Amino acid sequence: MEVSRAKLVTDASGDVIVELQTDAAPPATESHDLNVTLVSHEEIASEFFANLNCKHQGEFWLGKFRPEPTNSRRILEVTSVRHASQSLPIRCEALFVEPESPGEWINGDGAYEQLDDVKERRRQLFEVPIKTEGAAEDCPSFRVVMLVDNLLLTRPQLVPGIQVLPISGPLVSASNIAALNSILGSFGFDQSWDPNRLPPHIAQQRPTAALVAPHVLAPTGEEAQRKCVGLARRLLDLFALRRGDTPRLLLGAIGRNHDGSVLLEGLWLEGAGYKGNLAGGFISGEDQHGLLAQWNMLDTNPRIRLWISLYADALADPRWDYRALRCFNLLEGIASEILPQAAQVLDPSGAPFPQPNGRPYTTTHARGKIYQLVCMVTDAMNEATGSHVPNAHASTAPSLWEWIGMWVSIRNEVAHTGSWDIPDGQTASAKHEAIKREIESIGGEHGFAGGVEVILGVMMRTVDSTLIAFLSGRL
């Protein structure tokens, strides 16, 4: 049995009647309906629209549905017809365009012309170039491909300028297993794992995808890479929400589009690489006694476990503004746990710090909380407060109170606008520009980037001291 004719008709009530004919009637002993799948072709995507059952009535199979109101004429396609467990061949026109008024839906050449128009609008929506700031139309065109793991997709996902495509097969390769095998013997294992016999569960644990930006206009490949990595992180954050787990950007390649091919220009591993302690030994985080004491503290204090986990998340975030926000929020949360509520915050002379309205700052204010916490930590750890401000030895170094105020301003800029970077087409506020100049001043000859590196170092040093004070039982 196969489908020989199909028709859609909108009746006066707004219902859509689906009418099918088959080249043969079903046996009288069978009472199965036809199960029909309809796909909707829209400017953004072609997606499943409806499943409906069509009952055999005379020489036809009839079903109906009531579509939701829409501002445009739908294009529907019959993509599957099943009878019982059997898929039936469709030997007739199966693409239909909704009429402007009740009646039979358009099919044939007119329907395919409408579909071609929709596909062209879709192409114009998604196949747009990504441009770096200030890039002209005659800039070189680059193609960027990035590998992502821990992202399971069953179909391509598109946003303007970027495609995210599922990849079949495991990320873990034979070379990874060979590297593991090379050390197993030194730990007492009597055999190694066959690199060509990968356990099937591994592929399921680490689904992978490719993130592709086919057309990036930029003066240089480095600028194209930075632009695409920033967009990729933003998009993967969104996938974390939509898919329920956190994707991880691993590595990427960049090439220059040239006469229909792509000339490979570079490869990079994602992440800034190791930025931790380069020294070793007793005073550099490898003290065995200290490690055991801190491990035991974690075992008995789940609150500290939470704080350290949140700090690890902050260190792992490659975006400096998000890292600054995470560190601030962590310290503010710790301060809220241990400081008295609404206590006045005093300067070194014992006078309260005044707000712009003349009232004293208290520990209900974010700036007061962080300042008071840092003072407690420096007392407990026998540290100078100057070790927690940028460029402490410079004549222009801010006081601890001034520095905490700047940190609050950075936190507010990021928290209230979503990012330190100003979106394209928007103008930075005077306050934003003032903070930027302060960061540039801290960076000296290294400018804004150098200032960011300095202030992040101070922020992390403050969190380090705070957590170690708790781990060592001093707070």
Uncertain segments: none
Q: With helices defined by DSSP (H or I, 4 residues minimum), what is the helix count?
A: 11
The mean pLDDT is 89
Broad shape: elongated
Percent of residues in helices: 25-40%
Biggest pleated-sheet summary: 9 strands, antiparallel
Task: Kindly state the number of beta strands.
Answer: 16
How many structural domains in the coordinates?
3
Q: Helix-strand pattern, N to C?
A: EEEEEEEEEHEEEEHHEHEEHHHHHHH
Alpha-carbon distance between the termini? 79 Å
Structural class by secondary-structure content: alpha+beta
Radius of gyration: 31 Å
Strand content: 15-25%
Helices and strands in order, then pairings?
Blueprint: E1 3-10, E2 16-22, E3 34-41, E4 46-57, E5 60-65, E6 75-83, E7 86-87, E8 95-97, E9 103-104, H1 109-126, E10 130-131, E11 141-149, E12 157-159, E13 162-167, H2 174-184, H3 200-205, E14 208-217, H4 221-243, E15 248-258, E16 261-269, H5 288-300, H6 302-316, H7 320-338, H8 366-381, H9 400-417, H10 430-443, H11 447-471
Parallel strand pairs: 10-14
Antiparallel strand pairs: 1-2, 1-9, 2-5, 3-4, 3-6, 4-5, 6-7, 6-8, 11-14, 11-15, 12-13, 13-14, 15-16
Provide an overview of this structure.
- The protein is built from eleven helices and 16 strands.
- It has helices at 109-126, 174-184, 200-205, 221-243, 288-300, 302-316, 320-338, 366-381, 400-417, 430-443, 447-471, and strands spanning 3-10, 16-22, 34-41, 46-57, 60-65, 75-83, 86-87, 95-97, 103-104, 130-131, 141-149, 157-159, 162-167, 208-217, 248-258, 261-269.
- α5 crosses α6 and α7 packs across α8 (366-381).
- The relative contact order is 0.07.
- The model has no long low-confidence stretch (mean pLDDT 89).
